[in-house]
Amino acid sequence: MMAGMGSFNIRGLTELQREMEKLQDPNAFVEACAKELAARLLRLVIKRTPVGDYSGQSYTCETGFSHKGKKVKGKQGGTLRRGWTAGQRASAQGYADSLTVNHFGGTYVIEIVNPVEYASYVEYGHRTANHKGWVKGHFMMKISEQELQNMAPQILERKIRKYLGDIMK
User: Fold this and answer.
1) Counted domains in the chain
2) Computed from CA positions of residues 121, 117, 56, 130, in that sequence, does the dihedral angle turn out positive or negative?
3) Mean pLDDT across the chain, nearest whole number?
4) Which residues are CB-neighbours of 91 under 8 A, at least 6 positions away?
5) What is the pLDDT of residues 34-57, one digit of tens each?
6) Which of 93, 117, 105 is CA-nearest to residue 38?
7) Which long-range contacts (CB under 8 A, 24 or more apart) does 17-25 make?
8) ∠76-88-46 over CA atoms, to 5°?
9) Containing structural domain, residue 145
10) 49 within 8 A of 80, measured Cβ to Cβ
11) Residue 49 is inside which H or E element, if any?
12) How far is 67 from 130, CA to CA, in rounded Å?
């Protein structure tokens, strides 16, 4: 006497196999995570970067920019804040899609830099012009990195849940 064979629908397994094949190339997902973290770091550091206030000082300004609707004579603040860039971007707007990710083995790298010549002095501090005092650093990058380190686990967990949820629909 033979036991009866039940019916089996292979369609569900075939769909699962197709969804699992999407997981075989995780590079796009990892790059998206790296880009989002870099964009968030860029936003944090830009927000934390101080803007120079040159009001009351007599500097000549070739461009004649206006400040708060008024004609201003002198330097304009914000050069350091506008100087932040990530990847090979020309501006520091922080849009994750346009960030360039470099791969070095299993490491994904997005450089966030500020080429303004005095950026390191504002970050870490510096001696005064007369060498008799010290101007404290703002540590805008260091503090922003620490803040992102604290936020990263929740950000990545949300992205992983969404990613797996989209695949397993």
Assistant:
1) 1
2) positive
3) 79
4) 85
5) 999 999 999 999 999 998 876 665
6) 93
7) 19/167, 19/168, 19/169, 20/167, 22/167, 23/167
8) 40
9) 13-49+84-113+139-167
10) yes
11) none
12) 30
Neighbour tally for 82: CB within 10 Å: 15
Residue 71 lies in a domain: no
The answer to whether residues 126 and 96 touch, using CB atoms and an 8 Å cutoff, is no
Whole-angstrom distance, CA of residue 79 vs CA of residue 77:
6
Cβ 76 vs Cβ 54: under 8 Å: yes
> Each residue of 66-114: pLDDT tens digit?
444 455 555 667 899 999 998 764 444 445 556 788 888 888 889 999 9
The answer to whether 155 and 37 have CB atoms below 8 angstroms apart is: yes
As given in the structure block, the two tokens for residue 102 are: 């470099």
DSSP letter string, 87-110: TT-SS----GGG---EEETTEEE-
Q: Is the dihedral of CA 148, 154, 159, 163 positive or negative?
A: positive
Given a contact cutoff of 8 angstroms between Cβ atoms, the answer to whether 153 and 30 are in contact is no
The whole-angstrom separation of Cα 15 and Cα 18 is 5
> Is residue 64 included in any domain, yes or no?
no
Q: Where does 1-129 have alpha helices with state H?
A: 11-22, 27-48, 79-82, 119-124
Tell me if 107 sits within 8 A of 33, measured CB to CB.
Answer: no
Q: Is 38 helix (H, G, I), strand (E, B) or coil?
A: helix
